[in-house]
User: Fold this.
Amino acid sequence: MKRLDEHQLAVWRAFVNAHAAVIERIEKDLSDQRKIPLTTYDVLVALYQSPDKKLRMTELAKHVVLTRSGLTRVVERLEREGFVKRERTEEDRRGAFAVLTREGKKAFLATWPTYADGIKNYFLSVLDEDERAAIERGLSKIYRSLI
Amino acid sequence: MKRLDEHQLAVWRAFVNAHAAVIERIEKDLSDQRKIPLTTYDVLVALYQSPDKKLRMTELAKHVVLTRSGLTRVVERLEREGFVKRERTEEDRRGAFAVLTREGKKAFLATWPTYADGIKNYFLSVLDEDERAAIERGLSKIYRSLI
DNA sequence: AAGAAATATTTGCTTAGTCAAATAAATGGG
DNA sequence: CCCATTTATTTGACTAAGCAAATATTTCTT
Assistant:
């Protein structure tokens, strides 16, 4: 591909604008309904989906869009709110697990419906089947090419 | 649409992950090459594309993903760096224009090649023509449905 | 087995950006 | 024409998150 023309740029703009708009809307719904925000949610899902409902900080950081130190802060907050706890282990005493608590699971389960509605209403329902397929295919390729 | 199945969720995940990955990559390239970051860039393009290379703060805020107060801070920074200046006007003395300076134009023009390369390499080039078309169509619809 | 190198996580400091209140000027209604 | 309301922007106080340095522990290397 040589140079960017207006057409190609339009694809990029659509991507960036749609993302900002959808995320903003979903965040607003979550906050209006006193649910946990998205970054927090991502941490809790990652824990929920892990076999023992716990993950090493480094592992956890890979699941979310955060640096390791950013994750430390988030987990700190979550610990204060009682949604996770840190668990030291004898195997490797440098680090810690973040463990999902019962409260954390509850918060996470309570949040999902709002989040899911957002995904449906602001994103999926606007797309027809072809678009969904193409988006999934294209954007997955992009993601894989970058990790 | 009733309930979210795995398939549909995969579309959403692809969208979110691709966005985070591509933006992160582009920001990194910009920073490595000592170019201005994306939010800053967005402000400068908006000004550059406006008829007189200047916009009221409120107008400008609509072009970028920032609240009005967020914009105040960014323009403050940009003013410190000499890329824009604030210009009061007699017509309406409540507010001010942000005006692109010669330096600002230079910074913006110098940044574009890096940005454009990122868009090409990390995003467009990975997609085939169908995917590009579908993404443009679908995501534009989404964006329009939300403004 | 001792020191060097690597790994896991946290901390201190700083920047970016938000919200709600403050300020300032313009406008509309009686 | 004056006051109440609205509009434009900034400010103060705060939260989120990043980077680089610090800390703690493990794993190599010889």
Q: What stands out?
A: Chain A has a mean pLDDT of 94. The beta strands of chain A are 54-56, 84-88, 96-100. Chain A touches chain B through 47 residues (CB under 8 Å). The domain at 36-114 of chain A is CATH 1.10.10.10 (Arc Repressor Mutant, subunit A).
